[in-house]
Amino acid sequence: MRGANIYHLGLKELWSLARDPIMLMMIVFVFTMSVYAGATVLPETLHLAPIAIVDEDRSPLSERIIAAFEAPYFLPPQLIEQPLMDERMDAGLDTFALVIPSGFQRDVLARRSPAIQLNVDATRVSQALTGSGYVQSIVSTEVQTFVQHSQATPPAAVDLVMRMRFNPELTKTWFGAVNKLIDNITLLAIVLTGAALIRERERGTIEHLLVMPVTPFEIMASKVWSMGLVVLSAGLLSLRIVVSGWLAVPLAGSLPLFAAGAALYLFAATSLGIFLGTFARSMAQFGLLLMMVLLPLQMLSGGVTPRESMPELVRTLMLAAPSTHFVMLAQGILFRGATFMVVWPQFLALLLIGSVFFAVAHARFRSAITAMA
């Protein structure tokens, strides 16, 4: 009867979730608007920044520089006069104000190293830091190109030819969408299983389970498979509808293979949610525990920052986290079209880590259930 008990208890969890409108709204939001916002609202990305230019030189070189500021990084430059520059920046109309002095082209051709003034509204910190480098690069490129054409400078002996693989246009939305989906799968897997256990305690139904002919293993397994199924189904729908359809992110690999890897990952993540739920006495306590666990899983798993740029100790410790291997697996399958022969080490790691997490969570859950009895 163990399999039947796990099945029917899992159905009970699904019906309980279906009667919780707040949790259902959270699932829909997390896998739709949250994924879209995480993919498109990237604070480190310069996007349609307003820029004003004071052109006191009015030369072919200054016109080249003005024409180089274009979408998607900058809005069309606003040509203004010097007295309006401070007024527009005080009003927050421009993030950047570039002043091209009179005689700039003449001094460049005479190799006198003229200066260009760049005023930056530093209250917009993310755009100010990134955009200053963009402006410097654009101006330097245009000046160098103009000088080469004007003085017939011979081309360099070595020419670097770059070929971008997997993302030829360096579209950050592609990576942002998948990374946000991975983070949300982690979030929902832990939250739903932990909330399912805490909901039993708050509603007093845990006592009903204790007098039923079911074991702690059956109770825990039912919560793991039911909540894992919900997160897996919602995640795959989000991948197909939001990521692939709405955001038009090309998916190179096999979706069934990704689904199998996600199922293994959910086996570990839902077990972690049960483990945290045994320590929390309320949803407020569970939320505090969740912040301590979720942030390291998201920030140090390799989705936000490449693992190669992390300290050796952090990289070694994070190998024990299932999210690290899931990020490797997801990026390999969805971006590079990897087959099972390539990602089998991540599958094996997820299976081993999930088994350990499940065994530890089951021991803790059994201890907590015994204490309640």
Key traits:
four-stranded mixed β-sheet, 2 domains, 15 helices, abc type-2 transporter like fold, single chain, mainly alpha, 373 residues
Description:
This protein is mainly α. It has two domains: 2-41 and 169-372, no CATH class; 51-151, abc type-2 transporter like domain (abc type-2 transporter like fold). Strand 1 (51-55), helix 4 (60-68) and strand 2 (78-79) form a beta-alpha-beta unit. The model has no long low-confidence stretch (mean pLDDT 86). It is 67% helix and 4% strand. It has a four-stranded mixed sheet with strand order 2-1-3-4, sandwiched between helices.
Write a concise synopsis of the structure shown:
With 373 residues, the chain is mainly α. The protein contains 15 helices and four strands. α3 packs antiparallel against α8, α8 packs antiparallel against α10 and α11 packs parallel to α15.
Reported for the largest beta sheet, the result is: 4 strands, mixed
Please write the string of helix (H) and strand (E) elements: HHHEHEHEHEHHHHHHHHH
Shape: elongated
Helix content: 55-70%
